[in-house]
Design brief:
Rossmann fold; 717 residues; nine-stranded mixed beta sheet; alpha+beta
């Protein structure tokens, strides 16, 4: 008998050893030979904007003799409620280093992030937890850039002391003052998705090797600009090919470089001390007739040295010569040169030449949110305002508790006493509580369970003459049952993330531990693609809010506009959508608009009218800035002294969405277009079609769509 037991035990050990996975590899050899080399960094030079898209670069080198098919997975909390887990499939070739560009959102309070590399077809597994905040010293491994601060990304050359700009400049925005950060990235490590640049205030491309930029990088930067980004291109010795994506993006043609002589007064203003030469090679430029809003800056000798103007909802400046060719003494004094060409691109965030302010120690422990947070809260309040999420009337609670108290009290006592079974009270009381618990559960399900439903607010923006449109959609899904919900009909170019409300305008770590984000959103990424959710777990009787950003191939509307001599505007509005335009108006200035009528689906209508006064976007943005520190809801039906008198309705949600995360940069670009003489058509669609659904579920959608279209009036192009 003992021999049989020993034999069976030996067989079991052999089976376990045969099926045990290797510790960190795929070939089961010595562990040191199986270890892989992984480099990991977040943001731009360690700088990132909390809750905004930020790049994550993972460098991997494998020692294996065969290609390794793996899934790279990164997980970190993006806000108080949500953890964003992104995955991307990669194949690592033997001995060849590979950089994997990812994009994620991260919260300010996040203290750690988890990186995993798992074999897709093998039992390979590698995992590491990275500490991002030293709990003992209170020091962060990352720098959180606040809303009023400026983050500049740079690639290419670092000449003419451009990296010293932060040391001799500061930022101003909405009454706040803060430092300027400059972060350098090698050209090969530039993000391959437009979201990787979203946290930047300015991207500087300084004499880069244009032809070495990958197709994905070119497309990413072009899309970043079209969606509200700002880029300064410094042309040096490397020519920009005519067929390059950046050349096609600009409404100008570049000729051959020509030697020009800079004036001594310009050199003095730029504080170029003891220059070796005043002659530089300057690229010649010819502006296209349709270059609306573009301007050429000449030096005092009449030479064209800088051009700038809008591209979509962004802005591009082109410096036509390399300042490093001047050969003057390098130093912080040259910041005046760079500020002269950066200021036209900075928008509402201004930059000046004063000393860079030092951050307070409190900034290590608290973070001030931007104005978009308040507007996003208003959109979320509209999404959350479904009947099933409203609190149950207190009367029902009092009634149930009173009935339970009466039943397990006098009724139970009197009945058991009459039957002579008082000792049974332990059984009957327990049974009553169980029955009431089950009844309460199904009662609440009957009163508040409802059906699977979703609310959707969309903002779709486009510019006349620019192909396609940009869409930001805010989605709230109410779940009557706990389940793993999956969205169907997704486009691989969409960028999804979670949304969560914030209280006030400050995030602080004082006196609290990190909230790990109880809800995990499982997403998949692909190079130059998107971040689409594979799985969205939602608990019973709760709502999960998501935000989607994407580029659309076609704008939902088109329009032409002209102003008559009598001051009346004539607008031809075409509806390219599948549902009628319910309401529309034409913004013709900062605080004036012309009311337009409805337009059936697929048809055009002509409207004529005079402008009337309307709340300007500038005033709306100013009131957001003034009230963002209050714990109150801004977009109520009646606004008085920062307090809302009523819930957020559809109209208020549309107004709020114009200033929420994802849409606000385009709204600011429209403010600039209005100042330059353009007009903006704003149209609202009720019950617009929803571009996706819930896989395997019947869902009741309620969709409100706001479409905006920038028009250059006839005769002003």
């Amino acid at each position: 008998m003992r021999k049989r037991v020993a034999f069976l035990a030996l067989i079991g050990l052999l089976c376990l050893s045969a099926f045990a996975p290797p510790a960190a590899g795929v070939d089961g050899k010595d562990k040191k030979k199986r270890e892989i080399n992984v480099d990991f960094n977040i943001g731009w030079g360690g700088c990132y904007r909390p809750r905004e898209w930020t790049p994550v670069t993972v460098g991997v080198t494998t020692p294996f003799k065969q290609p390794l098919d793996c899934v790279v997975q990164f997980s970190a909390p993006q806000d108080d409620l949500n953890t964003l887990q992104i995955s991307r499939r990669e194949v690592f070739m033997p001995g060849l280093p590979r950089n994997i560009p990812l994009v994620t959102r991260m919260d300010f309070t996040v203290s750690s992030a988890v990186l995993r590399i798992m074999g897709a077809d093998t039992n390979f597994y590698w995992s590491r937890k990275y500490d991002l905040w030293n709990q003992d010293t209170g020091k962060r491994a990352l720098t959180a850039v606040e809303d009023h601060e400026i983050l500049i990304g740079l690639t290419g050359s670092q000449g003419f002391s451009i990296m010293q700009v932060p040391q001799a400049s500061g930022s101003r925005y909405a009454g706040g003052r803060g430092p300027v950060y400059a972060a350098y990235r090698f050209q090969r490590l530039l993000p391959s998705d437009w979201t990787g640049y979203a946290s930047l205030d300015l991207l500087v491309l300084y004499d880069v090797d244009w032809v070495e930029l990958t197709v994905h990088q070119q497309r990413a930067i072009s899309q970043y600009v079209a969606n509200g980004g700002r880029v300064l291109m410094v042309l040096g010795v490397k020519p920009l090919p005519a067929g390059h994506a950046f050349a096609r993006m600009l409404p100008l043609a570049l000729g051959e470089p020509k030697e020009i002589q800079l004036s001594s007064r310009d050199l003095s203003n730029w504080r170029c001390e003891r220059p070796k030469t005043d002659k530089v090679a300057c690229w010649q430029v010819r502006m296209a007739p349709s270059a609306h809003g573009w301007a050429i800056r000449n030096d005092r000798n009449g030479n064209s040295v800088f051009v700038s103007g809008p591209v979509g909802f962004g802005k591009v400046g082109v410096l036509l010569f390399d300042p490093a060719a001047i050969g003057c003494r390098q130093g912080k004094q040259l910041v005046d040169f760079w500020l002269e060409f950066m200021k036209p691109l900075m928008g509402r965030r201004s930059i000046d030449g004063s000393n860079n302010p030092e951050r307070s120690d409190d900034n290590e422990w608290s973070y001030k949110l931007g104005a978009e947070s308040l507007a996003s809260n208003a959109v979320l309040e509209y999404l959350y305002s479904v009947e099933e999420l409203k609190p149950i009337h207190i009367g029902w609670v009092v009634l149930v508790l009173t009935a339970l108290a009466i039943l397990i009290g006098p009724v139970d006592y009197l009945v058991l006493k009459a039957l002579g079974r008082l000792p049974w009270t332990w059984v009957t009381s327990t049974a009553c509580i169980a029955v009431f618990s089950v009844g309460a559960y199904y009662g609440v399900e009957y009163l508040r369970g409802g059906v699977l439903q979703a609310r959707l607010v969309s903002v779709v923006d486009s510019v006349d003459g620019i192909e396609g449109a940009w869409a930001t959609r805010y989605l709230g899904i109410f779940a009557p049952h706990s389940d793993d919900y999956r969205l169907s009909g997704l486009n691989r170019k969409q960028w999804w993330s979670g949304m969560a409300p914030t209280q006030g305008d400050q995030i602080s770590r004082y006196g609290r531990q990190e909230r790990t984000g109880a809800r995990t959103i499982y997403c998949e990424q692909h190079i130059d693609g998107g971040n689409w959710p594979n799985s969205v777990p939602i608990n019973i009787w709760s709502m999960q809010c998501l935000c989607s950003e994407s580029h659309l191939a076609k704008a939902p509307l088109a329009a032409t506009a002209r102003r008559g001599d009598d001051g009346r505007w004539t607008v031809t509005l075409r509806n390219n959508g599948e549902t009628p335009i319910a309401r529309a108006y034409l913004r013709v200035g900062a605080s004036q608009a012309v009311q337009l009528g409805s337009v059936p689906a697929g048809e055009s209508r002509e409207f004529t009218g005079r402008p009337t006064s309307r709340q300007s976007w500038q005033n709306e943005a100013r009131r957001i800035e003034e009230n963002r520190g209050r714990n109150s809801q801004y977009y109520g039906s009646d606004y008085e002294d920062g307090r809302a008198a009523g819930p957020v309705d559809t109209d208020s949600a549309n107004r709020a969405a114009e200033f929420a995360h994802g849409s606000y940069p385009r709204t600011k670009a429209m403010m600039s277009y209005l100042e330059q003489g353009a007009v903006v058509v704003c149209a609202e669609y009720d019950d617009a079609p929803v571009p996706w659904g819930i896989e395997g579920k019947d869902c009741r959608f309620q969709h409100t769509l706001l479409a905006r279209f920038v028009v250059f009036p006839e005769g002003r192009k």
